[in-house]
Design goal:
InterPro entries: Amidohydro_3, Metal-dep_hydrolase_composite, Metal_Hydrolase, YtcJ-like. By secondary structure, the protein is an alpha/beta fold. It is built from 19 helices and 24 strands. The radius of gyration is 23 Å and the shape is globular.
């Protein structure tokens, strides 16, 4: 007899299968779905199941975030001091908040602050803090303010500890800002890893990831494609063991976690040898081809506005990217290439196209942030022909997209998040957040779904309404299409026989609700076990 035989009945089960079946009931044994249909048919299966009556509530497959950052969420939500716009409105207030933190922190230990994308546009001074501002926090503590992973500001003590002086070179794809005298201002762009930026203790990261996991479960997310940027983050994830509830497909970053030799030798997979692959598995490799537009470090074909001759930097040559893509493909792993600027985007597409044609689409190589902007008709066709998965961020419609437009202009970037165009071209766009803690709810799928439907940002602006998608497509983004991007469509992404019993009970039916962003998650089940209840 199965250990866990359960029939869910009296429900509206939006299965998200190929036929978009809406069932009344389903049954699972030992965490796997064995029957879907009406009450009578699922009870016909032999056995003595437990009956879970949902009294007409709606059920969706467990939601999937195809591009997450557990270690950065742990940092932003649980470790760093909150310096976001909801709490501060000026550089002076950032200094005050961090000074209070320093007064409670032992001398010599790091004081860390978390801000948000384009925060300088919201601060009274119209700029980010610099080393002189953060020196007012403390000269006895290293201090760091983070606007995003791409933009970190250090005080003088921190720069000294990190070995930054007037002669420190910029890393490929990164930049240390300097004043007219050549002295570092404290602002750094895509230099955090290269400078050996501060990492929290393992125990703090483990605890932070546990709490981040609970936040995900509370919004119905049961699986992630997690981008790991540092060895400390991967060590913390592996240390969770039985406390890891989410299904996590991991993409460690080259070169901060692994080397090309780790990939070719198979050593990379040894980290996951004892992990339960249903919960934790190695899926691919992440590389950064350029920096972030929010940090002015994305690689563009044309000059940045007001910066003649500056177009951002590529982290690799074309030949180097082609070699890395080939090595990863030969290892039967996905490549996930960060490419924000149009120059980096073209470099990424070129590298996948350079693979033998028979390999196109086999592993569904990904370009992270492709589809946020710069989506010309020719690039869309090339993505489709090469079987590349574009991974744009629906949640950015709410927060970051208006900044893209202000930064570069509509004429230059084209429609932001052109989901209608991508889907019509046959590209299954995966739902994801790229949440790093810059806003409290960026990890929440339902507001992002609503934004993809309404095209309305948090400030009320309607962005490129011709790119709106349907409710069904918005749900597919965070279920079957996200599963497809992770190569897990046979395990998760829909409620069907043979798949994991991962599902969400919602407070309203998303197919009829006027605002998906207001939908509540009443319960989350993972592997046939309730892991969250409102």
């Amino acid at each position: 007899m199965p250990d866990n035989d359960v029939c869910v009945v009296n429900a509206r089960v939006i299965t998200m299968d190929d036929r978009r079946t809406v069932a009344d009931a389903f049954r699972f044994c030992d965490g796997v779905v064995v029957s879907v249909g009406d009450r009578e048919s699922v009870l016909r299966v032999p056995g003595d199941p437990e009956i879970v009556d949902l009294h007409g509530a709606t059920v969706l497959p467990g939601l999937i975030d195809a591009h997450s950052h557990l270690e950065l969420l742990a940092y932003a939500w649980e470790i760093a001091e909150d310096c976001r716009a909801g709490r501060v409105s000026s550089v002076a207030e950032i200094v005050d908040v961090l000074r209070d933190k320093a007064n409670k922190t032992p001398t010599g230990e790091w004081v860390l602050g978390q801000g948000e994308h384009y925060q300088h546009l919201k601060l009274t001074e119209g700029r980010y803090p610099d080393r002189h501002d953060l020196d007012q926090v403390s000269m006895n503590h290293p201090v760091m303010y983070r606007a995003s992973y791409h933009l970190n500001v250090f005080n003088s003590r921190a720069l000294q500890l990190l070995g930054v002086d007037d002669d420190t070179p910029d890393a490929p794809g990164g930049r240390i800002e300097r004043d007219t005298d050549g002295t570092a201002t404290g602002r750094t762009y895509d230099m955090f890893a290269a400078l050996g930026g501060p990492q929290p203790p393992l125990g703090a990261l483990v605890d932070g990831i546990k709490r981040a996991q609970q936040r995900y479960l509370s919004v119905g997310v049961t699986a992630l494609g997690d981008i790991m940027l540092h060895t400390e983050g991967l060590d913390a994830l592996l240390a969770l063991e039985d406390d890891l509830l989410l299904r996590v497909a991991v993409y460690p970053k080259l070169p901060t976690i692994l080397s090309k030799e780790d990939i070719t030798s198979g050593r990379l997979g040894e980290h996951f040898a004892t992990a339960d692959p249903a919960r934790l598995r190695l899926k691919g490799v992440k590389i950064f081809l350029d920096g972030g537009l929010t940090a002015g470090a994305a690689a563009l074909h044309d000059d940045y506005p007001g910066q003649p001759g500056y177009r951002g930097e590529l982290a690799y040559t074309d030949e180097e990217v082609c070699e890395i893509v080939r090595i990863v493909d030969d290892a039967d792993l996905q490549i996930a290439m960060h490419a924000i600027g149009d120059r980096a985007l073209d470099q990424a597409i070129d590298a996948v196209e350079a693979l033998p044609e028979a390999r196109h689409g086999v592993l569904r190589h990904r370009i992270e942030h492709a589809g946020n902007m710069f989506m010309t008709s020719e690039r869309v066709k090339r993505l489709a022909r090469a079987g590349i998965v574009p991974v744009p961020q629906p949640a950015f419609l709410l927060t970051t997209a208006p900044g893209y437009i202000k930064h570069l202009g509509r004429d230059r970037i084209g429609p932001v998040m052109p989901f209608r165009t991508l889907i019509d071209a046959g590209l299954p766009v995966p739902g994801n957040s790229d949440a790093i803690g810059i806003t409290p709810d960026q990890h929440h799928p339902f507001p992002a779904m609503q934004a993809a439907i309404s095209r309305r940002s948090q400030d009320g602006a309607v962005l490129d309404p011709q790119e709106a998608i349907t409710v069904d497509e918005a749900i597919a983004m965070y279920t079957r299409w996200a599963a497809h991007s992770l190569g897990r469509e046979n395990e998760i992404g829909s409620i069907e026989i043979g798949k994991h019993a991962d599902f969400v009970v919602t407070g309203a039916d998303p197919l009829t609700a006027p605002d998906l962003g207001a939908i509540t998650v009443e319960a989350t089940w993972l592997g046939g076990r309730k892991v969250y209840s409102r």
